[in-house]
Amino acid sequence: MNKQKRLAKPILWAIILFVGLIVSILTAITFGNADLSISDVYSVIGYELFHFEQFQAFATGATHDIVWLIRFPRVILALTIGMGLSVCGVVMQSVVKNPLADPYILGISSGASFGATLAILFGIGSVFGANAVGVMAFIGALITSLLVLLLANLGGRTNLTKIILSGLAVSAICSAFSNFVIYIANDKSATVQIMFWLMGSMASAKWHIIAVVLPIMLVGTLVFWSQYRQLNVMLLGDDTAITLGMNTQQLRRWYIILSSLMVGFAVYAAGVIGFVGLVIPHAVRLVFGSDHKYVIPFSALVGSIFVIWADVMSRIVLRNSEMPIGILISLIGAPCFIFLMIRHTHRAGGK
């Protein structure tokens, strides 16, 4: 009976969040610059998903293209990115035992953007075919994450300050190299495209991109969810984990590689979007505690809903224009980061 009571609350929240996600998807599709009626929007969705004959008139035309080729993939991409970045934030915070860690703070997003910039401007990695940008973004993210851990371990045991400073330093280096590459490329049209991409946007959402990125995020999320016991033990420290027979170093490497893969393809699809992996896990922990059995799936759901609505806000906050979603989320995430940093410092006695 007690076990049933303990499970009742998470199950109820899972249902609420899943329904909230479905409602968010269906509502977000109705927002856009084109003046379309809600019935037309859902008629297109009804035809494409269920092939209802009464919606045959919406099988082609401008309304169909706006809804099915622009708005719907955009919402699904926002869902995908929100899920992936939130889960990576949870894992990063456990792997480095640092509540302020996320792919953006640790410089992993900057490394991914540097790799993608090289692929776009100079065609580096073209051997990987149509997904060369995504693969180069993954390679950049992986190298950056390993470099941050290496720097943090220099000169003695790693700690909070060394990890954060290493991440900031590596992020600054990657950003500087990205800017240098853009400068020497001297391609104005590509520069404008890359600068908008570096600020984050769902505008490039296409079904063929989602077909690559969504499976990676789903599989990564499920793999990390299956590792919730190991992630819980990691939070207790390496000594405890080794006592329980865990090879923490090997697990840490695999988690970093998989996180880098997810972050790399998130950057490839939507550009650099920071603070999602920082804010969402902390918000979820405030409600559900620190057990990864619940933190990982609920972070995936909350992160998806958050980025979907952030993308809607980025489209409507400026008249006849679009604000890069990375700017909007940074305006929310940066104050949260400062708050968490001050809170953590006070808990640590100011050291």
Helix-strand blueprint:
Elements lengths: L1 H27 L9 H13 L11 H34 L12 H15 L9 H22 L6 H26 L2 H11 L8 H20 L1 H7 L3 H6 L4 H23 L5 H13 L3 H25 L8 H23 L4
Helix pairs in contact: 1-13, 2-3, 3-8, 3-11, 3-12, 3-13, 4-5, 4-6, 4-11, 5-6, 5-11, 8-11, 8-13, 12-13
Brief characterization of the structure:
This protein is mostly helical and 351 residues long. It is built from 14 helices and no strands. α8 (207-226) packs antiparallel against α11.
Please count the beta strands (DSSP E, at least 2 residues each): 0
- Oligomeric form: single chain
Number of helices: 14
Which range does the strand content fall in? under 5%
Rg, Å, rounded:
21 Å
N- to C-terminal separation? 45 Å
Describe the fold and architecture:
By secondary structure, the protein is mainly α. It contains 14 helices and no strands. α2 packs across α3. The N and C termini lie far apart (45 Å). The relative contact order is 0.15. The model has no long low-confidence stretch (mean pLDDT 83).
